[in-house]
Design a protein that fits this description.
heterodimer; A: alpha+beta; 3 helices; 3 strands; globular; B: alpha+beta; Immunoglobulin-like; Recoverin, domain 1; two-stranded parallel sheet; 8 helices; 30% strand
Chain lengths: 74, 353
Amino acid sequence: MNHRPAYLLLIGATILQTNLVFAQGIPPEGRFEAAPKIGEIIPDLTLVDDQGNLTRVRDVARGHYTVMTLGCLT
Amino acid sequence: MFYYVYKPLAHPEYNNYVSPVTIEERLMHVAEAKRVLGTSVNWLADTMDNVWHEAMGRTPNSELVIDPKGVIVARRAWSDPEELRRDLERFVGAVERPTRIADLDLPTQRPAPTVAKGIVSRIEKPEGMWPIKIEPLLEESRVPFYVKARAEGDPGILADGNGTMYLGFHLDPLYRVHWNNEAGPVKFQLEAPPGVTVVPASGVGPNVEEPADADPREFLIDVTAESVDQPLGLDVFYFACDDALTFCVPVNQSYRVTLARDESHDWSIQTTADGPQLGVGPSGRGGGRGGARVGQGRPDFSSLDPNGDGRISMEEAPGRMRGVFGQMDADDDGFLTESEFQSGPGSRGQRQR
């Protein structure tokens, strides 16, 4: 059983996965201006967990520090 | 807690992956991402109307750190592991021995095995193509969309609906299916609204001698439009078999095509004489045929091999390369030779596998 901190797995996976994406005509940095800012509460949105269950983001993040990173296969 | 949030494909068709059309298919992508990455990190899938992706400004790889009260305490447009580590040390505390990527022993799996085989030639798209909106009519189909139609428009299409439209019919590799060429080629029919003309309005894929293959079937359509307000109808008919040969079925499916840019994707795939390449859209940035490519700015092999042993390890590889390291490592020995480096994804010699 691997007892390494889970976030280290994420860091590694982040490097492996997300470097497949590259900037487009409108830089992500510019588009990200529309995203929630530091000090704001995360949006009250609902996502889907890997079992297909609807999951409120605020429930996921409640009570502990949470990292949320966007990614995809390409 | 750590979550990846699975979003729309940034580059549909790259590594043969095509956009899911249902949440069940998006969850199949999540499972595939777990397989490819070999990671146990938690995943959430964005909804099919992409609420999280939209909230994050349609960024492909943004990242939030959220405190226990739900307040955002760090954010960045591009995920950065080193900066994230510093964030976590600041908010949660440092660890005694930071784990290196090499310590994780993460397998870098190859893409799904059902991929284009190079039997049917790819077409070369005009410059500046960009994905346009294409919506499958799910309720009208009794079977999954084993084949996903993709549509792109050239700058003329994107400007006022007059120009060249790309139609590509791509097998979804996650269904492990292939074309049943013995039964007949793919056929399509476009239904244009009043004021719109499409040439050709119908098409038939090539007759292929091989009994089965997985190559895309592609067409270029000339479009003249007085207005782009109304969508085009697209009907597709094909024969599909799964790779395990448990079924072979005739499939008739329909789409609605709107002559407007699909903002949920980032780039088009440009097919050139050198094979498929990532390209930018109509902004023209990146220059040259197909615009910027993965390999642009790639460093020299020697600069990535500081110990001069003639090969690049995962640790020596720059971050961008690590995501495709497994694909480049043809002999799976964990190192890239100069030959593997030169022929890997994004290089001019790359061919779709």
